[in-house]
Amino acid sequence: MLYQAYQFHDDLIAPLRDLARRLQIFSATALWGSGSEMGRHFAAALEMISRFEITHQRPDFAIDSVMIGNRVVPVTVETVLDMPFGALLHFATDTDAKRPRVLVVAPLSGHFATLLRGTVQTLLRDHDVYITDWANARDVPLSAGRFGMDDYVDYIMHFLEEIGPGAHILAVCQPCVQALAAVAVMSEERHPATPRTMTLMAGPIDPRESPTKVNELAVSKSLAWFENSLITGVPWRYRGGGRRVYPGFLQLVAFMSMNMQRHQDAHRKLYDHLAKGETAEAGKIKKFYDEYFAVLDLTEEFYIETIERVFQKAELATGDLTHHGRKVDPGQIRNTALLTVEGGRDDICALGQTSAAHDLCRALRPHLKRHHLQANVGHYGVFSGRRWEGEIYPVVRNMILAME
Where is the PHB de-polymerase C-terminal domain (predicted)? Predict the structure, then answer.
């Protein structure tokens, strides 16, 4: 009944949000909305109420153009491959120049792939970029079947096959495990679409290293607790009605609880900016939370298997990970150059968890391995923001360029 309770609450306050939006329009022409201090505070309060909402639809990537060389080039988002639980998107650019093809593997952890908008926008300067666009499980009908960790690895391999030989892969956060598994399987099979480089950014290759609150929670409870406390059925009003999922709204609450004071402070600042008419400053905060409050649901099997196999048993690090019953051996990776990136202030995936991939990829020669520690960033700073653009991205670009 967890999802039903959430839906009932959301339906209950929806009229209040709608009323606030209507009053915003009315107050713009009313006397109290004419620019007085009381009017600005009233309008700010209305906007805060209207924004009290979690959305379940992927926002637009809103990447219309990119600077390539010395000219602005239009960008068009194309669906290359559409599968039930995810699509392969291509950011097509109007340029004849040959550019390295990069598959960005987005996390399946409660947010949409648009969370990596900044990552993609930066990569587009020098690369032909593709991304995994994972579906919201509540919108996938039961007839589509299950989607677990092995299926996730299958999707990555299907996407690489679609892109073709000679591509590169870059995984952010949670899918670093599945990306490494996919490259290991493809390497062992000598698959022609095995990527030339593999960049793993802030991912739990070995979560036993410097455990964070996320890691500690995963191992402190039994699988039965996760199944009974966090898994629920999708309401029948949606296409995936009846599917058992880990709801995105629960993941959002979990993420926010780790830094609740920071989120409270951000919303106080938002109210103050709105009340003062500081639209540019307010816009920056609204843009972030429009993305942050857009959530998707995970299938029960993917979430539970991730808890058990990635965090509780650390199967990849211990050598026990299998793919459809077949052992995954990163030691089979011989020609795919490896770059790992960690943030020195990362409180989700701490130091050592991602760099553990170097020991696992034991057959790689030293010149095909590189680790980059960005000492002054947290988790999100590894793949977005000023440090990503100015200091981390050049390392990623140079690794890819060296293997072209």
Answer: 202-401
What are 191-221's pLDDT values in tens digits?
Answer: 999 999 999 999 999 999 998 888 888 899 9
By the 8 A CB rule, do 336 and 198 touch?
yes
Beta bridge partners of 294: 55
Chain position carrying tokens 């095909």: 368
CA angle, residues 177, 178, 180, in degrees to nearest 5: 70
For the segment 257-284, what is each residue's pLDDT rounded down to a tens digit? 767 888 788 888 887 887 788 888 888 8
- Measure Cα distances from 191 to 73, 297, 363 in Å: 34, 32, 17
Q: ∠155-317-326 over CA atoms, to 5°? A: 50
- Partners of 81 in the β-ladder: 88
CB of 382 closer than 8 Å to CB of 373: no
Contact (CB, 8 A) for 184 and 332: yes
| 80 strand-pairing partners | none
Alpha carbon of residue 374 to chain centroid: 20
